[in-house]
Amino acid sequence: MKFVYISLSGNTKAFVQKLVDYFTFNHADIPVETLDVKELVKEGQAYPDLDQPYIAFLPTYLEGGNGVDNGDREILTTDLRQLIAKGNNAHYCLGIIGSGNRNFNNQFCLTAYQYSNQFGFPVLDTYEMRGLSADVERIAGKIMMAYDLEK
Hints:
Shape: globular
Mean pLDDT: 94
Strand order of the largest sheet: 2-1-3-4-5
Distance between the termini: 16 Å
Number of helices: 5
Largest sheet: 5 strands, parallel
CATH superfamily: Flavodoxin domain
Order of helices and strands: EHEHEHEHEH
Radius of gyration: 15 Å
Number of strands: 5
Structural class: alpha/beta
CATH class: Alpha Beta
Strand content: 15-25%
């Protein structure tokens, strides 16, 4: 199982790590690999061609406004969009999990829905900030279903 994510404030990275820990403890037979897009960019590496199914994780950073009639332009996380758009990478994405702050109302996880519309994969779930243990369990179940591992 592969998780591809971008984390700017550390919230998404912390949530992905909680999921990795959850799978390690509860499903040790399912190895989890992670790819931090921010680290790729920081190290000057090219976006890789992904050749296996993965789940994408995306925090919401938008330019001002209210997310309805303005303020719905993605900022800071476009490296993940570029990686997904490269070659056939979007084909392997089983879905996206969005995060954000509910204080931003209509903008909450809006970027994940924009990716879903652009690339044609589903928004599997959303959570706020670093997520709660209930979010980890719920989202782990949805990831299992996306990978068709839950019987």
